[in-house]
Amino acid sequence: MPRIAYSDRGDTPFQRLLGHNEAILTEWTRLEETFYSAGTLDRNLKEQVRRTLAFGNGCEYCQAKGRADASQEDMRTSLAVGFAELFLKDRGAIGEASFNILRELFTEQEIAELCAYICFTTGSQLFGAMMDLKPEGPAGSEGA
To answer: Which InterPro entries would you find in this protein's record (predicted)?
Structure first.
């Protein structure tokens, strides 16, 4: 059981916690949907970044789908996961050199999207961790 009771709004446990404020739930969900429907980055890349962040941010709910695939064959996904790991370890270590490495495989638009996605996902996962949100059902069958 999370730290506060679920509201009656939202489709997932995460959304039902946000659902105590309908405007926040609506806008948060809309932004999340934008990342997955209108973004330029590959869906698998984002999922591997999300999984990486889940363990660093301590959200058990978000960890339910497991760790990132350690054997990334796609260089862009591997680089994005490494950048997310750097973000988790030491945000202050992300300097111009890190962005120069990203520029080798990503456009400016993709870098902006990746950084925004990392920040949004971190916010979501920190909220889940703060609320002590746990996965429900077998192997965390409910989505964020």
So the answer is: AhpD-like (IPR029032)
